[in-house]
Design a protein that fits this description.
The structure is a single chain. This protein is α+β, with helices and mostly antiparallel strands and 142 residues long. The chain has a single domain, classed as Nuclear Transport Factor 2, Chain: A. The protein contains 4 helices and 6 strands; from the N terminus they run ααββααββββ. Strands 2-1-6-5-4-3 form a 6-stranded mixed sheet, with helices on one face. It is globular, with a radius of gyration of 18 Å. The relative contact order is 0.15. InterPro entries: DUF4440 (IPR027843), NTF2-like_dom_sf (IPR032710). This is DUF4440 domain-containing protein. It comes from Arcicella aurantiaca. Keywords: Signal.
Length: 142
């Protein structure tokens, strides 16, 4: 009986861990796709990692912005062309699953911009699995 219980517990742990690794891989892939879109000057495709909802929250130096469309509008206003966008690089510091459908990612971002000067900072992204897809529901970048 003890062996059966141990086997069942190990099976559950292995399945949960495998799911977490798959989810982590999906999130990192989305971040990679976002980086490529940004570096191609494509803000609209960069935004595909975000939750397309009025409840999306973006926190930056200007305060809190709500909504996918407003966030997209702000990105386009603040980064009107490829020169302003520069070349984006992410450095992932931590990926932490806080539930089976929620994760936060902490990292550094850096824009190399020869004409405008380099900028960078840190970010925390809150991810949620909605309808089987991982999306950023809150972004705090500074």
């Amino acid at each position: 009986m003890k062996k059966l219980i141990l086997f069942l517990l190990l099976s559950i742990v292995c399945k949960v861990n495998a799911q977490t690794e798959k989810d982590k891989s999906q999130i990192l892939s989305i971040l990679d796709q976002q980086t490529k879109a940004w570096n191609n000057g494509d803000v609209s495709n960069f935004m595909k990692g975000y939750w397309e909802s009025d409840s999306l929250m973006y926190i930056g130096k200007s305060g809190v912005t709500y909504g996918y469309n407003k966030t997209l509008e702000n990105y386009k206003k603040n980064y009107p062309n490829k020169a302003a966008m520069g070349t984006l690089a992410f450095d992932i510091i931590k990926v932490n699953f806080i539930a089976s459908n929620a994760c936060f990612v902490v990292g550094k971002w850096h824009l190399t911009r020869p004409e405008k000067g380099d900028i960078g900072g840190h970010y925390t992204l809150l991810w949620k699995k909605i309808n089987g897809e991982w999306v950023i529901v809150a972004d705090h970048s500074s």
